Records
---
Amino acid sequence: MARHVEIAGAGIGGLTAAAAFAQRGWSVRVHERAAELRDIGVGTTIWANGHRVLAAIGALDEVLARGNRISRLELFDHTNTMLRGDNFPPGELQGTVALRVDLHQALVNAARRSGVEIILSSPAMAAEPEGVLITEGGARHEADLVIGTDGYNSRVRDSLGLASHVGFVTDAHIGRVIIPRVGPAEPGAIREYWGPTRCCGVLSCGEQEYMFLSGSENCPLAPDEVANSTVAHAAWIAEFPHLAEHFSRIGTNVIWGRYPIVRCTSWSAGRVAILGDSAHGMPSTLAQGAGCAMANALALAEMATSSADIATMLPEWEARERPVTEITQRWAVLYLTLLKRWPNDLLDMRAAMTAEAFASPGLVRHLTTAARHVVG
């Protein structure tokens, strides 16, 4: 008889796990709190580790058909001087910029092709270490394994007391927005700009461009920006005058949030595991939150399938995968701290240090630990 897994959350991590387990002969049921399967309408970066996972579950071709391969990465300082310029030859640290809705749909399709059952309007309320997922109304769903991928505010995680810290790294907000492209499409490039108090990035995404916007700490303009889903155009253009045309195309479709941080004492309890933002929410500065979630999900499916004792296997899975995720989380936090906590009268020093750091192969290897990680 096939073993059974109950999954809380139909996000990127949950759907990756669902497809991976189903393809290994498990019966899989996913509980999604929303009334429809959807993701936010912004862009995302998928690095080599994400590519490998998507290939393993049969979703890569669909993502690549809709995304834009990253061929170049550039970083500019407060004077618009380039601090870093890296070209990525085909197959070397490969990456793709895609819309999150396209990535999410590819995962939904892979899960459904594999026979996964997805139940909507079924929020998870708690879990029990014996292998029980409890959903709204008190319904109990027994399984050989329960996986909580129910996000930053995970009820599965909190019901088991696994969190040691759940919060935000800074008081700054991050905005994400898709704007129409003006001019011909170009090869995939990520351009990041560090201003005196703000940071922004422009990612080529086919016929559109994806921008991320990182405001200053305790910015007095932030409440209005968040409330109105827009930007204070004059303030952003003042720091990035060379991007005035880009900011002029931003309307009221900006999705604002904050930089999360989640640390846990353990990623499991009994026969319940947590992954993704539930276990290791991190700032988006290295674009590896989704990549780590997908890699950890695939590793969990591989190890669980080859193990007769789930409760014994879960600590082994964590011991193997957690170091990669945690070093990525630490560097993502450090990167953000460098941006947000650096004194304004020492910006030239920041630029010099950053240029030197990115010239160090050792540091770049640390920053790309997750991208280079191969599951199994």
---
Amino acid sequence: MIALDGLSLSLAELVGVARSGATPTLAPSARVAMARSHAWVQDTQSGTAAIYGINTGFGSLARVRIDPADTSLLSRNLIRSHAAGVGDACPPDVVRAMMLLRANALARGASGCRPLLVDTLCAMLAADVVPRIPKQGSCGSSGDLAPLSHLALVVFGEGGEVLAPTGTIGGLEAMAQAGLATLTPQAKDGLAMTNGAQLTTAITALALHDALVLLRTAERAAAMSIEALLGVTRAFHPAVHALRPHPGAIETAAELLRHLRGSTLVDSMPDKVQDAYSLRCTPVVLGAARDVLRYGQAVVEIELNSVTDNPVMLMDEPGENHAFSAGLFHGEPVGIAADAMKVGVAELASLSERRLYRLTTGSLSSRLPSALAGADRPGLGMLVPQTTAAALVSENKALAWPMSVDSIPTCEDQEDHVAMSTTAAWRFWEVVQNSRRVVAVELLCASRALRFRLQERPGVRLGEGAEEVLPLLEGLAAENEVASDAIEAIAARIALGHFA
């Protein structure tokens, strides 16, 4: 059970809730903080001061005053009008992560809504009531309005759809089946549910987790390829990288040497002075990816425990008006991080493809069979899997174009600079999926190449990294003789961390 207080949620806990069925609950301290700000909102509805979203309209209608009797209708209308998402449904793990993040942001007690709202979100997660959230329709400002509104439809009994094994069912039916009551929105409830960058952050956080696993796998794949290509390890010496001390490069060089420990294939060609860039520059390129993911992780860890509402209720500030209108909902911090990380992961895949190209090209592979096609199985080489990897790398180049530099004004120019962070996050997600398959092809080719080396040089020793996973890779290839099936089977194992 994960206690939500708006301050201490970790990436590992988010992944556990999103993918492993872990369940959250509202921490007692958070319940007190939420009740305090909610009581102030209730008391100020009928006051003379205009407080955005509590007794005023939204966006460009902020100057329109709302009668206290109409505050529930105001929240309902907000949810209905903003549930304008389109396209395919978000994956269930992304939706669960989004729900958790919204609950944790509200738990901070700065949103002015009831603890019951977080209790309901937690109960939905425990019962696996996962609304269908369309992937498209958010510009990342004011947060992920449309996606969060589709979640709010289910929470407040306004309809919506919920994912089910056979497709989707109505939100009201799904809540009833789970024994959960829908809520009648009060003042600030609708705005509190819809105003935030939680879909952007959910996508980015899960993609980051997967990218970190992929990076470790890519280092193992690189070591196996370097070994199969009879590489030179002097390029990875710690004293070399101390001369240009980027932390990621130092760490990757150390990982390569760890995976290659014990190998008698590397450094076995005395006349070989240096390798091609795709081998000897691996610490520099993968190290840069390490460093950019480290930056992105720092951003995500801040965002996991951030309030992204407008207005926010600062109850300890002096004065009668505790509502502060600001721009915390803007997705730019996460969007820029997602853009940066997808470039790093795209380069990881680009380098992987160059190594596997050398493995499958006879003139570049230090006398491996052309296309890695054995005489016993003519025609079953690895040329087309390399072509698949090249196609994925090319697709990554288009996806890596930064979305956070784009902006199209919305809301009658009230929202005159938007983040496009949600699209940046989805593109990061897609780059990770593509790159995972590229590394899967490299692992497939490297394992085949190492088998040829063992046949060619009886008695040689493989490095520790290859020794650990070669039987598993060969088993997956044998069980899935069609190349596509083998690639997908290996990619699925990469996602689970089996090669990291």
---
Amino acid sequence: MSASSPRKHLESLRTEVDAAFLYEQVAAHEEDEQVAKLFREMAGIERGHAETAFVQLKTAGTLKEMPAPSWRARMLDRIGKHMGYAHVIAQLMDVEKGLASANVSLKRKSGTPLNGAEGNHVLILQSLMANKRGLGGEQLGRIEGKHKTVGGNALRAAVLGANDGLVSNMSLVMGVAGATDGDQGVLLAGLAGLLAGALSMALGEWISVKSSQELYERQMALEMTELEMNPEGERKELVLIFMAKGISETESERLASEALADTGKAHALLVKEELGINAEELKGSAWEAAITSFFLFALGAILPVIPFFLTGGMNAILISVGLSAAGLFIIGAAITLFTGRSVWFSGSRQVLFGLAAAAVTFGIGKLIGVNVVG
């Protein structure tokens, strides 16, 4: 192994251990036995890769014991138990891509020839569904749908919403504090910034969800009209869709005619395959999204304001900076649930960028305050 190889191999091993653990957890909570069996097989594949990597590292004297699942994997499992495993499945899909990329990188650094199969592991799940387990379209749709929608990426939106509130309001509070030495109007400005930002986020989220739903509903209605007025044309479209999936023309003709026998089934198929609309995206409430965005933004935005309820001056400024820095670090650590990066790296980076923004606005506020007073 090269000097950098042990570290890379160790990272890969830990990723595979986490993937095996999460696949097992997803399988344990999957109601469909065929889908659960699929995930258990994926867990076995990842466990096999992990065992192979562990033997190499143990032989090289780098590792003595197989590592346990990381805190990140265990946290994802807890989130899955409370919020559903859709987010976990999406993360596993991304892990497969990361492992494939890492495998190629390791081979290139060690001079091992590529065999052309390095990128195939990311497709194993789909291959098993199509070939080994004979899963039908319903099961396939369930897994693909979970990966694509991930509950509207609710967890990611939560983290980013709180981050927006914290960074924007901390910058505002520090700007006013710089101009007034932390006394006049900081609390009022902070609360106004919190309310204005949260309302703006809520309205933007409501408009986004509502407009998307209205657009999809209109497209679906048009598709139903076309199906009723020109069933033969829609049947030909279904034939082409099936043929594009590698199905023979004769079989595609049969499947299309079978689908057209049930207008609802044909419409659902055309909506999914032709329009690319996932019906799950229409179930979300615009008001629920708006209210959630409001409170998530407010949750982050309140942190830099809290000290000014209790005190003022430089004491309040320092406490506000410390409290905001702690919030930024927690948000940075939460982001690692999506990126897989080091908690300390991600958290410290978030603190650095957030405090830099606050320092700039504080300096500008200080300059403006001096000029006004002067």
